[in-house]
Design goal:
By secondary structure, the protein is α+β, with helices and mostly antiparallel strands. The chain has a single domain, classed as Creatinase/methionine aminopeptidase superfamily (Creatine Amidinohydrolase). Helices cover 28% and strands 27% of the residues. Strands 10-9-11-16-17 form a 5-stranded antiparallel β-sheet. Strand 6 and strand 7 form a beta hairpin. The structure holds 2-amino-4-trifluoromethylsulfanyl-butyric acid and cobalt (II) ion (CO) (2 copies).
Length: 258
């Protein structure tokens, strides 16, 4: 399937959907503190999404015969992505928590994620968060017209591995627009000069998932929660980016009004 290019109207709507996704994520991350449950964050996220007149793209999202049961994905420590919020999961001082917010607004979808510390965390975990955020930033800078998708992938991988961390391979970034997952796939590893050529009007969700230990992952019996196989902590940062003739534009930055 070919990569959908957004026209002027599609881009305007993407801007709005992504601004909502960003504002919700920004508010949510400021609530994080020891003692909260991941269900508390879910309920805050659900209400924030509704307050913007948007809806969660996650809720009811289907993979195979399963439907995702929550409005947000909240993944703690060794959980990589797709953590299902729970009243039993209490955030503790020293944890890291990944918040992934995806909303549908006016028919278009914005997708973004951050990992934040809970209270005080170790220097190694601080480094994990910094490296993952910087890897996303460097990847975004490769989303330039004329480059290829593999330029994003290779740049992220090289940076992460140079810091002694590993990139998850089975899960990838993706095009995003009227559907949550559109072509192309955007792996966080690969080779420069490979993959599809980047053209103006692509909207790409770039999202490195980085492990302190090995790159291997597995899915828990709940059918959703992805964890590292070796139990090592994992971080995840994501932005939705528009490609333009004048360079990449991050759409998931919080704004005052949508
Ligand atoms: N936000 C995720 C992504 O970055 C997808 C959510 S999966 C769902 O692609 F099951 F929660 F919907
Ligand atoms: Co996401
Ligand atoms: Co995504």
């Amino acid at each position: 399937m070919s990569i959908p290019l957004k026209n002027k109207d599609g881009i305007a709507r993407m801007r709005e959907a992504c601004a909502v996704a960003a504002m919700v994520l920004d508010s949510l991350k400021q609530l994080v503190r020891p003692g909260l449950t991941t269900q508390d964050l879910e309920e805050a996220g659900r209400d924030l999404i509704a307050s913007h007149g948007a809806r969660s793209s996650d809720y009811g999202y289907q993979i195979g015969s399963r439907r995702y049961p929550a409005h947000t994905c909240i993944s703690v420590n060794e959980e990589v992505v797709h953590g299902i919020p729970s009243i039993r999961r209490v955030l503790r001082d020293g944890d890291i928590v990944s918040l992934d917010v995806t909303v549908t607004y006016n028919g278009y979808i914005g997708d973004n994620a951050v990992t934040v510390p809970v209270g005080r965390i170790t220097p190694r975990l601080t480094e994990l968060l910094d490296v993952t955020r910087d890897a996303l930033d460097l990847g975004i800078r490769q989303a330039v017209v004329g480059n290829r998708i593999g330029d994003i992938s290779a740049t992220i991988q090289a940076y992460v591995e140079s810091h002694g961390f590993s990139v998850v391979r089975e899960m990838v970034g993706h095009g995003v627009g009227v559907k949550m997952h559109e072509p192309p796939e955007i792996p966080n590893f690969g080779r420069k000069g490979t993959g599809e050529k980047i053209k103006p009007g692509m909207t790409l969700a770039i999202e490195p998932m980085v492990n302190v230990g090995g790159h291997r992952i597995k899915t828990l019996a709940d059918g959703w929660t992805v964890v590292t196989s070796d139990g090592s902590p994992s971080a995840h940062f994501e932005h939705t980016v528009l490609t333009t003739e004048t360079g990449p534009e991050i759409l998931t930055l919080p704004r005052r009004s949508p």
